[in-house]
Write a structure and sequence with these properties.
Strand content: 25-35%
CATH topology of the largest domain: Rossmann fold
Number of domains: 2
Structural class: alpha+beta
Radius of gyration: 25 Å
Distance between the termini: 27 Å
Largest sheet: 10 strands, mixed
CATH class of the largest domain: Alpha Beta
Shape: globular
Strand order of the largest sheet: 1-2-4-3-5-6-9-10-13-14
Helix content: 10-25%
């Protein structure tokens, strides 16, 4: 945090960006030069069992005095630059492994860029494979690894797989039914469940802004192999709130912009519930009989895939006792550990270069041990960063074993406390919700979703009449929440459907000095530490939605992803509840209809209530860590 004035802070921030840009360009130039001097590049087409050929680039050490392990990265985002003389600026997982010497292999997945075949988004796992035509990402990975270990000279017969985000999904799939040569994998920010918590949806609510932007470029068809990125018109203004509000109902995205050109968007819009279409894409049910050592990596503030790494780790742990299964969670947004030093995110400064520490002290030793037999194995089960305290912990389980479940009760007059609510004549708190004036997800005027949205100051929302605020007293001692959070609400609505957004917030003392990197005062800063949305019609089943009975008290309970955060003495804990979070989340008409096909006339105002009586005690379940 800085302690300078707003104008000076802004000037320093802009200057810092310029310096970082220069340093980044310089570092990339040095990395590129190092790769060219120490590695040779070769390009291949590797034939899969069904005859389809996948384009693959191999960077092998020039020094052939010894054999090296292979690290494989499969991607839908291009292995470019293409051509034997065109080299990458950086390697995955990091330049540490480049200097350590590995054989780095990159592959365009089926149907993307220079690879043959047909691309399928989140291609489902084929449980039964009767013949060579029954392919999926596990078979493509197996066939690729088999060819590599047999044909790439000077490899030592050991293969690791890694990737971030979509390549993280391919890494997970390569961990299932893995080739015997695959001894270590590291899915990073992987997708696990696109309906409940990754990328496309959170608890059935569609994540509008990021999906619209992503599929605008990613979803364009690629009829033939090409080295070029498909590009289309991006109808952005600098104000995405205004843009999406003027777009109107969700169906207008296709009518006005996609025009049936993006096949996966069209399919998504045809499947509003957790039906067979989405169920087929679930990754975690197949995480059984895992043989490689696995290190799953994620960020506590990942705005795209926070559930994925947590779910991947937990399912592997549950279904594969005895294997090496490690979870790493740092104070990062989506893929930040591979992109910058990891010292800051938005207004938050974490006191050290967390990405650098992870790359050198966790990631490199993991691959060195399992692929080279070098060093010692990681003893910790979970290597996790405690935000608020700003320190790493190496634990033997996640969540930690010494935790106690407590309920944070939402009380009358906007109070919040670890106690049973006393009898009160005030039975509920209510707020209006108007889909034509939704609560913005950020205070910024911007064209997309901020990478720092999950740590942003929430004071802009706390003052709105359509946001409920519950706040604790000043804490008498530090409190650390470690593990999943459960929002257990008793609610009613005058409509027949509603979204419920729950945000857990760390409120800084009013006398905190200085300003944040964005220039806002730190006194009273409301740091979002966890937030999520639940589409109310799915409260009993994601497959069979049900309307609300107007004005009837109803239970809505859902899990917010895990947290590891210390609320310090003198701080306060806050819970905010609202029913719009726009345009991060699409608008709920507040009428029980198929939102994918809803008309403008379906959108209606509603009044929502959150109950806090002894009979209907709304609360948030948390795990307190007593370390």
């Amino acid at each position: 945090m800085t302690t300078c004035s707003h104008s000076l802070a802004l000037r320093n921030f802009l200057c810092g960006l310029a310096v970082l840009g220069i340093l980044s360009l310089s570092a990339h130039a040095q990395d590129s030069l190092y790769i060219k001097e120490h590695y040779s590049k070769t390009e291949y087409y590797i034939t899969m069992r069904d005859g389809v050929r996948l384009f693959t680039s191999v960077y092998a050490p020039e020094d052939t005095s010894q054999d090296y392990p292979i690290i494989l990265n499969r991607t839908p985002y291009s292995v470019g630059p293409y051509g034997p003389g065109a080299y990458r600026n950086r390697m995955v997982p990091s330049m540490n492994e480049v200097r350590e010497r590995y054989i780095f292999t990159y592959q365009d997945v089926r149907g993307r860029y220079m690879s043959e075949g047909t691309f399928v988004d989140l291609r489902p796992y084929e449980t039964v494979k009767k013949d060579k035509s029954d392919i999926d990402e596990t078979t493509d990975t197996y066939d690729t690894v088999d060819w590599l270990v047999k044909n790439i000279r000077h490899n030592n017969g050991r293969v690791g797989i890694t990737g971030i985000s979509y390549p993280g999904f391919y890494t997970t799939m390569g961990t299932i039914d893995a080739h015997p040569a695959v001894v270590a994998t590291s899915p990073q920010a992987p997708i696990a469940d696109p309906f409940v918590g990754d990328d496309e949806h959170h608890n059935g609510a569609f994540f509008l802004a990021q999906n619209f932007r992503f599929y605008m470029f990613f979803g364009q068809p690629r009829p033939v192999p090409t080295t070029r990125t498909t590009f289309s018109f991006r109808p952005w203004t600098m104000d995405s709130y205004k843009f999406f509000l003027e777009m109107g109902p969700l169906s207008n995205a296709n009518t006005l912009y996609f025009k049936d050109s993006v096949a996966f968007w069209t399919k998504m819009m045809s499947h509003e519930t957790l039906d067979e279409f989405w169920q087929a894409m679930l990754v975690y049910p197949h995480l059984k009989n895992i043989r490689p050592a696995v290190m799953t990596v994620g960020g506590w503030f990942d705005q795209e895939d926070l559930l994925g790494p947590l779910k991947t780790y937990k399912e592997i742990e549950k279904n594969n006792p005895g294997i090496t299964n490690i979870l790493v969670m740092g104070p990062w947004n989506h893929g930040q550990w591979n992109r910058d030093p990891g010292e800051v995110l938005g207004d938050m400064n974490f006191g050290s270069e967390t990405s650098v520490w992870f790359q050198m002290n966790v990631q490199l030793p993991f691959f060195n041990y399992y692929l080279k037999g070098k060093g010692d194995p990681t003893k910790a089960e979970a290597i996790v960063f405690e935000t608020g305290a700003n320190q790493w912990h190496q634990l033997d389980s996640w969540p930690p074993k010494n935790v106690t479940q407590k309920n944070l009760y939402l009380l009358p007059q906007g109070k919040l406390d670890f106690m049973q609510p006393p009898p009160s004549v005030e039975q509920f708190s209510e707020y209006p919700s108007d889909p034509s004036k939704p609560v913005p997800h950020t205070r910024e005027i911007r064209s997309g979703v901020s990478g720092a949205v999950l740590v942003e100051d929430q004071r802009f929302a706390a003052t709105r009449p359509d946001v409920l605020v519950f706040q604790s007293r000043k804490l008498d001692e530090d409190i650390t929440i470690a593990g999943p959070i459960i929002a257990s609400l008793r609610v009613s609505t005058t409509g027949t459907d509603a979204d419920w957004v729950v945000k857990l917030i760390d409120v800084f003392p009013d006398d905190s000095l200085g300003v944040a990197r964005s220039g806002v005062p730190l006194g009273g800063y409301q740091m979002l530490v966890r937030g999520d949305v639940f589409r109310g019609k799915f409260r009993n089943s994601f497959s069979k939605p049900e309307p609300f009975v107007p004005n009837e008290v109803t239970k809505v309970e859902f899990e917010l992803c895990d947290l590891f955060h210390r609320f310090k003495k003198g701080h306060r804990i806050m819970v905010q509840i609202q029913s719009t979070w726009f345009p991060l989340v699409d608008r709920n008409p507040q009428k029980f209809v198929n939102i994918r096909t809803a008309k403008e006339s379906d959108f209606q105002k509603a009044t929502h209530r959150v109950y806090h009586s002894p009979q209907h005690a709304s609360h948030v379940k948390v795990l307190l860590w007593g370390n």
